[in-house]
What does this fold into?
Amino acid sequence: MRKNISLILLTVIVTLGFIFRFINLTDTPAGFNWDEASVGYNAYSLLLTGKDEFGRSWPIFIESFGDFKTGLYSMMLVPIINCLGLNVFSVRVLNVFIGTSLIIAGYFLGKQYFKRTTEALILAGLLAFSPLAIHLSRFTLEWYAALPLFVTGVGLLIHEKKFSWRLILATVLLGFSLYWYHSLRLILPFFLFSYFLIYRSQLLKEKKIFILSLVVGLLSITPLLIAFKQNNILTRPQAVAIFNDSEQQRLQTESLYRFTTASVPLRRILANKGVYYLQEIAYRYLGHFSPEFLFFGTDATPRISIHQVGKLQLVALPFLIIGFAEVLKKRSKENLLILSWVFLAPLPASLTTDAPHGLRSLLLLPVLLLIVVIGLSRVHLYFKKHWSSTSVTLMEAFIFLVFMANFLSQISHYFLFYAEETTSYWQADQQEMVHKLNLYKDQYQQVLVSTDDGQPYIFIAFFTPINPLEFQQAIKNQQQIFNSRVNQLGNLIFKTIHSEDYCLPNTLIITKNFPVVKNLKPIATVYLPNRWHEPKESFYFFETDNPLIRSQLCPVEK
It folds into this structure.
């Protein structure tokens, strides 16, 4: 009977979690960012041609904008797009199911850690009703698929004292998670090394299972290693690394100059490059544990930052502290593994220019919620020991109501106001821009589309949609440059707009900047959508044959 009740409760939690991830999927977040469009269009290209946008057959990694996204996500989208067509809903809906699977993975992890159903249900509930987890499930985020794989893998690692096929399955799942998430490629080797140090006595006693797990794990990542050799997979990590940032290099040089000018003792030690970068990494690392990042929505990525909503609910803070104290106090093997998870999770983000960074430290979310549950469990035991059963029930009901009130306040704000607060970060104007572009483009010799807003070509390919065979043919000879591979599609040219471009004959210019021309009116204007205020102007369409432009911007032809 108790088992049936637990199953019913889990079903209710998962169902409610699915509903919050699914409703109004195309409206919140507003718009459709270029990464989503890239993943979706590549899936469309695979469906029709068996090749990605750049003509590679079923690749493990898709070049995209030079960041080499996993091709597996686009492959999984192929049957969905085949059934539903190429649109925002068909591209986003897969992540709803991935986010829902994380709830189930969290339940599994909780069951293995606590060996009890109640705490496992609480962890599943916290994941189901986490505003951040809900948000991350509502748009196309190929990284997110790594989380349920990693969480399930960790659950298998701590399942029981005697190793068995679970260790083999864990290595497969953890190995497979590397295909999806850049950060895990740095974290996982250290995490598995920590696991070996913690469990080495048991692992060495069961050498056959241990060696077999290593072999199977290596086999599972062999295609990944081959793909690494064939592609410039490290292009994106290198581009965002703190060590390659020109501003950081300037600041380090300036620091050394000041120490030298001031004749500070030991200046070569205090201001050398190694010490400087170590300080910067430590600052970024600790930022992931700051109250602003964890509880108040501060994030280097505006698309992840929900107004005044952090990675955790503020009401969870006391239980997080109690949970950490409990983990540090009882240094069991499981707790040591949990601590290694916590301390490794922010490491990749700490090595980049933008930190603290919610996406690059995604692994923090499930483990911090696990620690919150540890704190809740410890509080429950204290209440049970010192209070009457009625008082315990009332206090737990109060805690539940506070959590739910906090959640309802945050989620209502999310669905009511988040879309308008972040329209510019989600390129909510691109679909209308493409629609108007397709109305005008054939009337001009060429169309110049400004690249100041990122990657306009992928929105044109997605929302038109352009036949993948025609797309592949159009871009096959274009130079491969990080973040700017596609510069022309037919009569569409993608570039930074300069004043001299307005002097080109029979040209349509699409830009977000209004030229300095008196009394000029665009032939079309695109607005950022807004339900609560007057929409803001976003894109302007100008034709260069306009007499006002010719007379005020272009020199008189002799």
About this structure: The CA atoms of residues 110 and 116 lie 8 Å apart. Residues 429-553 form one domain. The mean pLDDT is 89. The chain is about 60% helix and 5% strand.
